[in-house]
Amino acid sequence: MPTWTTPKTDWQGSDYFMAADWLRIVGNVEYIADSLGVAYTPFTAVTDGQTLLTSQDRNNVTDMLETLCIALNASWNRGYVLPRTDYGSAWNSKDLNIIENMLLSMKEQLDGELSDKVEYYTDEIFCGDSISVGLL
Questions:
Q1: How far apart are CA 42 and CA 44, in angstroms?
Q2: Would you give the DSSP letter of residue 83?
């Protein structure tokens, strides 16, 4: 069984993303997936200064995060990390904070520290000229 490593949730623009950071993130994704019985095999053959993560490597992580949110019926407030494209940007500090905070919230939900009940409602949703009342 994979082990849990405390996420880094205070990324700054001046921080370097290292192999240990990648391994922590994919290890935590694997931990959550394993806890939920969701198949996930992370890419772990990384070495500082030698491994080039592809857009698909990064998208595999964020796609799995979405899958895990669905499996958890997660209703807590969270961010979203756009899919990466070839020759596009890598994750920035904002993306990394979103990813690591999502993982932390998933672990808290699994541990019963974060509610799995729907907590975010709306009274009114404005849609053009009409008003609809209900649950988001």
A1: 6
A2: P
Contact 88, 55 (CB under 8 A): yes
For tokens 């994704």, what's the residue? 29
Q: Could you give the C-alpha distances from 16 to 5, 9, 57, 63, 127, in angstroms and in order?
A: 18, 14, 18, 23, 43
Residue with tokens 């690591």: 100
pTM of the model: 0.84
Interval 38-84: pLDDT, tens: 999 999 999 998 988 999 999 999 999 999 999 999 888 888 999 99
Question: 3-state SS string over 89-103?
Answer: CCCCHHHHHHHHHHH
Q: What is the DSSP letter of 129?
A: T
Q: What's phi and psi for 52, nearest 5 deg?
A: -105, 110
